Description:
Distance between the termini: 16 Å
CATH architecture of one domain: Alpha-Beta Barrel
Helix content: 40-55%
CATH topology of one domain: TIM Barrel
Amino acid sequence: MTDEENYLKTIEFRRPDxxxxxxxxxxxxxxxxxxxxxDIVIKHPIIFGAQKKGGRDFDSFGTSYTKGTYTDGWGCRWxxxxxxxxxxxxxxxxxxxxxxxxxxxxxxxxxxxxxxxxEGLKQAREEGRLARGGGLPHGFMFQRLYYLIGFEKxxxxxxxxRSEVELLVQKVFSHNMAVVNKYLELGANFMSFGDDMGNQIxxxxxxxxxxxxxxxxxFSRLFGACKKAGAHVYLHSDGHILEIIGDLVECGMxxxxxxIRANTIDGLVRECKGKVCVNLDLxxxxxxxxxxxxxxxxxKEATIKLSxxxxxxxxxxxxxxxxxxxxxxxxxxxxxxxxxxxx
Length: 343
């Protein structure tokens, strides 16, 4: 069985042969550890695939990971104070709610090489692989709203029930819907979305407000279009989102990538197990400070509590530059061990 076939069986609860596992290494992590980290990656082809020595530029960063400022296509100004990690929005193109009516979202068809994307999706389908679509930046919906007008203004707009909030939501949604429809038209059968909707221990707005402003007018239509087209929906969200996971599943989400600490293992068991595939974001806040033995216990507990022989569990670890090398090695070893939990 190929990795792709096993991945699809996991999503669809069709008894995969192993638990899919992955490790993400931030550009800053590569820049810090360099050849030593490369040695770990080469040792673990099960996690990273086949790798060759000397095949990486440790100091190559994309725009969003480079120290400095830049302005994105929406007019939001980003500032990054440390190369290799992401920055944050510090300049908002909408200064007041009065300006929302005149704000124009970027052309959803611009910035994409649709011919090349369509050819890639077609080739994937012909080869029996998932035709993966995306094209929407991280923070495509909820975060984009406060990127545009500022977090405090957006929160106050929600609290005050301002009509301009719904207008702003519609402008962002219309852009996103056009991009998603184009991917589906070109044959995507897997769509990835990323939007950090939670704080550390709770939602930033009430579940009722999420349903009013985002789930019913936006996610239900975005994910519903994917569902109608037969496409799987992958959603990443940092933070506490337990109260709205069920709503997102109803919208058509088939894979959720939640953080374990913010939602708790028992909370995720209650809201997700047997209902939606979980690509579990293991505890990034644990990795810098614990021992290799702690890491194995953490991964073991997550696997025992969330796994099912029918499928529905993937394990993912993101490593920032504050994670010691020995702990990165322990993460890889433990994932390789518990991916075969049923054997």
